[in-house]
Design brief:
two-stranded antiparallel sheet, 24% strand, single chain, alpha+beta, 4-stranded mixed sheet
Amino acid sequence: MLVYHGSNMIVEKPELLRPNRALDFGNGFYTTLSLTQAQSFANNVVARNNNKGVPTISYYEIDYEKILQKLKVLIFDKPDEEWLDFVYECRTVKYTGKQYDIIVGPVANDTVYRVFRQY
């Protein structure tokens, strides 16, 4: 499975950096199955960083079946009430529940896409 990451630079080896704001699934390295969404994220990163860098898409091949077998994965199939509660707690930095290696699900923006957040 191919996943994309939008940034203001090439990310050859993903690192976990503390974001400057609360995100839908908490701290982590976010990827998406949508090239369009990755491009939008890349544009946003450049804009948030005072136009430093250029919108850049990095992509990674992952073995999704192996991930499901070996890591703790939380999957939200749709933006339902459980998903909304989780996103709210992450965005308000109040989440104290079970910890996961990867979270898969929609992000809360104007268009909902499935993303992968990796710890």
